[in-house]
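Supplementary Note 3. Input sequence used for the single-chain structure prediction.
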Amino acid sequence: MANSEFDVSKLSDSQQSALGTYTSVTNQEIPAAVSLLERSQWNVQIAIAKFFDGEAPDPLEEARASLASNPIPTQTSQRETLLSGSPRFRGQSRGSIREPAPRIVPQSETRSIHRVPFILSLFLTPFNLLYRLLSGSVRLFNHLFPLFPRLLPGLSNGTSRERSQRATAIRHPLSPKRTTSRFTRQFEEEYGPNSLPFFEGSYAQAYDLAKRDLKFLLVVLISPEHEDTSSFVRTTLLSQEVASYISDPLNKLILWAGNVQDTEAYQVSTALNCTKFPFAAVVAHTPQDSSTSMSTIARISGLVPPASFTSRLQTVINQHSTVLDQARTARNEQQAARNLREEQNSAYERSLAQDRERARQRREEEEGRIRAEQEKKAKVEADELNTRKLEQWRKWRAQSISREPGPDVKEVTRVSIRMTSGERVVRRFAVDTDLEELYAFTECYDTLQQQHSTPVQKPGDYNHSYGFRLVSPIPRTVYSAADGETIGSKIGRSGNLLVELIDDEGDDA
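The predicted structure, written as discrete structure tokens, is reproduced below.
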């Protein structure tokens, strides 16, 4: 059932929260996730554990199904002979019974080290020295007389047995990955180089890989103390037939092997109900039990010929491959649907982002246009205000320009000014008149031509600056209004001046 066919709104708030937490961890389809959460009483931790470790069959449901399918037999049907066997054993002979295969994560073994008190160590020092002296003497005696231990077979066997137990039973615990590497290295040292594709990782990692990729996990457990271990490895496991079958990628086998003297392998043997060595088991996903279950679908115990070992593997893989292929097809379809939804969501997000970007650009363009219009309007208003103040200033300044001296005044300077319009203006000024008065006359010439009887006030908040300069052409001399000198001292008795406008770049004199 697709996600779109399941109405999540029918769940309560707490159930929707639990569903969101579970799917964020497992990435499982919503209908299967709801079904598993319902079987787990909506406990997220139990559901996640069932998803990764495999879900064991419900004993209550199995009992109900057994009672429904197998009614209680009468006394006449219970009369059986040893030849026919009980119904329970006849059922087992007709088909294999799957057992849940749990996910094993080895517990870290922390060995607490107790330091002997100092006083007690002093008390035991003589005994320790005596023990070392005697053990050294015995080893020296055995080295000098190597035939002597053979005369005492009981002592010799006991000593060798203890040494073997110390060598094999005591193994330093390592991490799962390093434990697997140690097993592979010791396996090659014991049996030589081989082509077996041992999984370089822990059992839990191999378990997760088989569950994720829907492959078969072949677990091989050996015990160095067992008498059939060496024969099984050399004649069966390392045979060309078995090694080729395991290495064939078409069979989709993941080989994980371990020594039961290691913590992880021992826990795996206990979980898989191993009762005899050497031991091999095939673990695979069983979707017919649940969407997350992993089960032991085959066990091979004891010394088995290569042909029988390969035949057993081939039979169980052929029987279960159809189910895994169907599950793989369903998972691929779900993944394809999920990818399609993700692509659609991604395309929608890209389109939404593009629309947002276009809207942002339009908004910025509109804001820029409004800002430019406002700046233009403000500039026009400022220019108009400046023009009005300039005209007011000219009227105000024209009121204070002194009149032209009469013919009877001898101390005057005759100035000829060529305006920008081409008009030439000739006027006489008193020799003690400032140059600024000459600039003011030139600035206010057009205003002076008009008759203004009404007094005009000086415009406020306005600083006037002359937009021109007065220049004598030959030789070129610039007369500045800021010099503070008189017309007579700068120009003399007469002079010809030109009005030059000052452009925006501010030409220097």
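Residues 71-96, 109-113, 153-170 have pLDDT under 50 and may be disordered. The radius of gyration is 54 Å.
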